[in-house]
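G., the chain you wanted modeled:
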Amino acid sequence: MRLFIEHRTDYRFSEPQARVVQLLRMTPGCHAGQNVVDWRVDVDCDARLKPGRDGFGNEIHMLYIRGPVERISLTATGEVLTEDRAGMIAGTSEPLPPSLFLQRTNCSVADAAITEFARDIADAGDSVLSQAHRLNDSLHERLTLDRGRRQGDRDAAKTFAEGHGAYTDLAHVFIAAARVIGMPARYVSGHLLRRDGADELQEAAHGWAEAWIDGMGWIGFDPAMGMCPDEAYVRVAIGLDYRDAAPLSGARTGGGDEVLEVGVRVGLTDAQNRR
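Predicted structure as tokens:
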């Protein structure tokens, strides 16, 4: 597929800010099954953007803005060519060993209920790959997706107990359960083309998980959709949990309150639609 993406973030401050510093993880990389044709990040005020990579290998930009500033609009837009690789990842920047992704985080701690659930999956036998698929399918059946809820740092135990959550929350449960049974797992932020063809404004970027399978490498699993990522997915950043891969994080110097609005559009390019 040839996908067009527009990811817009608007900040409004109740008081002028003297300085704003943000880390942007909004630029997808090229790897097997994903080729970035064109990409740009625009800011609607006087700002400095410094490109680089973080410790996970993600492409990043550091954004520096000197005030006084009362509002900021960031827009990441571009086109990406994708193909279906059944979730299998190859050709990515991997500076860290898979074993690092067995670490627990505050968002991905497995309580007694998740631990029992994960061990039941493992006790059923079969290959590690089969266990990962069964874990993904079971969570898709068990947990309800809250499409309207914003992503955040809700912990996996609460999501599992309540039986519902946002994309991020369901991915955190998968990650927590996978790590219980010794399967390295990590969070992925990115974008997803709506399969019903609706060109609606999405309230946030998408999120899913990847698990390490010996002999195969990293494979994506999306418990919210109950499938492995295919050509409708665009992969942007990875981390131990959402906070490591969030599109934006940073700090500001100044008082008052902050209001954040996010809008994401993912669609087929005109060339793709004419086929």
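The first strand starts at residue 2 and ends at 24.

Shout if anything looks off.
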